[in-house]
Amino acid sequence: MKCKRCRRAEAAVDLPSHHSAFCPDCFFVFFQRQVKEGIRKFRLLAPEDRVLVCVSGGKDSLVLWDVLMELGYETEGLYIDLGIDGYSERSKEKVLAYAASRGKTPIVVELAREGIPIPEAARCARMEECSVCGTVKRYFFNRVAAEGKFTVVATGHNLDDEAARLLGNLLHWHRDHLSRQHPFLPDAGEGLVRKVKPLWRVSELETASYGFLKGIDYVTEECPMSEDATSLVYKEALSRIEDQMPGTRTVFYQGFLDPGNPLRRAPEAQLREGGGKEREGAGTVEAGTPRACASCGAPTFAEVCSFCRLRERVQKRREQRAGRASG
Question: How far apart are alpha carbons 129 and 121 in whole angstroms?
Fold first, then answer.
């Protein structure tokens, strides 16, 4: 099959959802144009931005870092070592190797040194690993960005990720989550940095193809903590539909993002990632102007931020275990 763009070279990537197939060079042009259009449509990034790219060692985040550098943005990478035996070490190696190949040195946060590695934190707090991981990651994404004077945080969520999240929110009618789901989350002042998802228009197949053709070495295994994640079920369901009706995933998610959709608010109305209210003991704290966390000083909409509450639970459980062991 010949490339549908140049009509000369053999196609290397077949994209039924776009009724196209591309040779490597033309695919790179296509991919970058998709990312640029995603950035332009919602004004995710400006030329003067300092972008903190959150990299995990997987294909999506490393491809995001690569394409943003190719597009000329000023970027630095942030890797959070989750403290998962074996997996975290392999992921870190991929990040360091990629960064070195581009003359970069990523920022590394080791959760074991912070006293809250994900496996232990989940056991101590009696919470799902993915929930704990999300809380901890969001905290350090924002803290590192604010301390480093970055203007925006970028994550590698692709079309498959966002469509799966949308399907889950619709099936359970999580209206608060639906109203916030968007590739653009504006800053809320007081140290809450803007967050964007520049890969929202490209599929997992496309990011994997970009990474492979670019020679980017990434971790291919799934995080062992995500084996039972419901998002994987939603992804599989959408993939089966996509196989029969190419392009459905794009129509599904882009239709949801239509400004006239009553299920979601405009990005400017999204003041916080946690929604309209945040549990604080027996009461609630309404969304509004963030305040400084009484424990760590980070911006929060409660007296104590969710990260510090989690860390306190972990510390209490450690002390209880130590007390039983000594007794």
Answer: 8
DSSP-assigned letter for residue 303: S
Largest CA distance in the chain: 77
Burial (Cβ within 10 Å: 0-12, 13-18, ≥19) of residue 241: middle
Kindly give the confidence (pLDDT) of every residue in the chain, 327 residues in length, as a single tens digit, with 9 standing for 90 and above.
999 999 999 999 999 999 999 999 999 999 999 999 999 999 999 999 999 999 999 999 999 999 999 999 999 999 999 999 999 999 999 999 999 999 999 999 999 999 899 999 999 888 889 989 999 999 999 999 999 999 999 999 999 999 999 999 999 999 888 988 999 998 866 678 999 999 999 999 999 999 999 999 999 998 888 876 888 999 999 999 999 999 999 999 999 999 888 887 655 454 444 443 333 332 233 356 788 999 999 998 889 999 999 999 998 988 888 777 776
- Percentage helix, strand, coil, to 5, in the chain? 50, 15, 40
First to last CA, the chain: 73
pTM for this model (two decimals): 0.90
Class in CATH terms, 43-274: alpha beta
Q: Where are the domains of the chain?
A: 43-274
What contacts 206, CB < 8 A, 6 or more positions away?
13, 15, 31, 34, 158
CA–CA dist 171, 24 (Å, integer)? 38
